[in-house]
Amino acid sequence: MFGEKYNRTKDRVNAVFSPQRGGTVGYAVDWFIMLLIAANVLAVALETVDSLYANYAAFFFWFELVSVAIFSVEYIGRLWACTAREPYSHPIFGRVSFAKRPMLIVDLLAILPFFLGPLLPADLRFLRALRLLRFFRLFKLARYSESMQVFTRVVHRKKADFVVAVSLTLILLVVTSSLMYFVETAAQPDEFGSIPQTLWWGVVTLTTVGYGDVTPVTLLGRLLGGIVAMLGIGLFGLPASILATGFIEERRRDESEQSYCPHCGEKLD
Predict the structure, then answer these.
(1) Which of 44, 121, 167, 255 is the least buried, fewest Cβ under 10 Å from its Cβ?
(2) Dihedral (C-alpha) 114, 119, 122, 124: value to the nearest 10 degrees?
(3) DSSP 192
(4) Where in the chain is the domain with CATH 1.10.287.70?
(5) How would you write the pLDDT of the chain (269 residues) with one tens digit per residue?
(6) SS3 breakdown of the chain: % helix, strand, coil, rounded to 5?
(7) Please, what is the Cα angle at 216 between 213 and 217, to 5 degrees?
């Protein structure tokens, strides 16, 4: 009797963290967590305003304390109830496997700074940097956003294309920086004194940022700089086109899956 009640409770808790199974309660919990994440990110930003933090330090502390308590309960609840799912049914290895999932690691990183802070040396600058780790809570939004999940799937499916695009960018960066070094080093030895030093010019030019702190002065150097700037426009537009193609393919895949019955597999009218 106790075992059955225990398993039913665990299954209900697991359903609460799955909107598809938890229904209205599941969606309510998801929205509450999302709003709390957003409020925490806003609080981190506002704490950096010295005048606000000086006047509302107590509020920020208690808000942090309550938030960490809620996030901790959520994390422990997920870890405890995960054995209700078949792939994680083992009471020990199932939970270890579940805890190694990327989103669970993000959940853990979101609360660790609060618990580790008192154990670290009292270096205020280091503690402030550690508190910035709370921005990991923003990545928890990916769990509750269908759009973010689609984006993750697209990036995963197109990772080979992204690797090619990044590789081409790095090759072009090294080649153009090397050429610019040989063209400009005689005219500007301080600005183009070595290939690694010229890489800064290559990054700024390829990304079309154009700070203007390092610029070629020779005719050949300016010609090369213009070519690199134009190549950068197309090259850095390549990832956007890869993403656009991935989203189109993902949408077509979803439409194809929806045209068949999920139970019998027959084509729907």
Answers:
(1) 121
(2) -20
(3) S
(4) 159-254
(5) 556 777 778 778 877 776 556 567 777 887 788 788 888 888 877 887 888 888 998 998 899 899 989 989 989 988 888 888 888 888 888 888 988 888 788 788 878 877 876 666 554 444 445 555 556 656 666 666 677 778 888 888 888 888 888 888 888 899 999 999 999 999 999 889 898 899 999 999 988 888 888 899 999 999 999 999 888 888 878 888 888 888 888 888 777 765 544 444 454 54
(6) 80, 0, 20
(7) 115
β-strand partners of 267: 260
Is 134 in a helix, a strand, or coil?
Answer: helix
| Residue where the block lists tokens 């183009």 | 192
Cα separation, 128 vs 145, whole angstroms? 29
CA distance 215 to 225: 8
Stretch(es) of the chain classified as CATH 1.20.120.350: 2-144
Distances (CA, A) of 149 to 87, 105, 123, 178, 239: 21, 16, 38, 41, 18
- DSSP string for 16-74: HT-HHHHHHHHHHHHHHHHHHHHHHHHHHHHHTSHHHHHHSHHHHHHHHHHHHHHHHHH
Cα-flanking dihedrals φ and ψ of residue 105, to 5°? Answer: -65, -40
Q: Structure tokens of 57?
A: 């330090």
Q: Which amino acid is at 30?
A: D
Packed helices 2-16 and 19-47: angle between N→C axes, nearest 10 degrees: 60
Q: Is domain 159-254 annotated with CATH 1.10.287.70?
A: yes
Enter the tokens of residue 109: 């990183």
Name the CATH architecture for the domain at 2-144.
Answer: Up-down Bundle (1.20)
**Whole-angstrom Cα distance, residue 26 to residue 82?**
15
